[in-house]
């Protein structure tokens, strides 16, 4: 395996991880900002108000985004296994 091939595998892996985790992280960020804005406007500083909606939306996002996450990681693993079979790794 050359340095270029190793770099390609590593960059594909990092990209796949970012794509797979992106929807969940984006939803957590948006929900957190909305809740923080709501708390700043109403001056309600309840701790459960920050966690319960965020966890619920993350769970819903995981249910919706699981096929996309699976397809992304399967594409990466298929490419790596093909490289192993061809003797590239």
From TrEMBL:
PANTHER family associated with the record: FLAGELLAR BIOSYNTHETIC PROTEIN FLIQ (PTHR34040)
GO BP field: bacterial-type flagellum assembly; protein secretion
Membrane-topology annotation of the record: Multi-pass membrane protein
Native organism taxonomy? Bacteria, Pseudomonadati, Pseudomonadota, Alphaproteobacteria, Rhodobacterales
Where is this protein primarily located?
Answer: membrane
Family classification: Belongs to the FliQ/MopD/SpaQ family.
Q: Which InterPro entries match?
A: Bac_export_3, FliQ
- Pfam families associated with the record: Bac_export_3
Provide the protein's localization.
Answer: Cell membrane; Bacterial flagellum basal body
Q: Membrane-spanning residues where? A: 14-39, 51-73
Q: What is this protein called?
A: Flagellar biosynthetic protein FliQ
Species per Swiss-Prot/TrEMBL record:
Thalassococcus profundi
Point out the gene that encodes the protein.
Answer: fliQ
| Keywords annotated in UniProt | Bacterial flagellum, Cell membrane, Cell projection, Cilium, Flagellum, Membrane, Transmembrane, Transmembrane helix
Question: What is the annotated role of this protein in its UniProt record?
Answer: Role in flagellar biosynthesis.
GO CC terms of this entry: bacterial-type flagellum basal body; plasma membrane
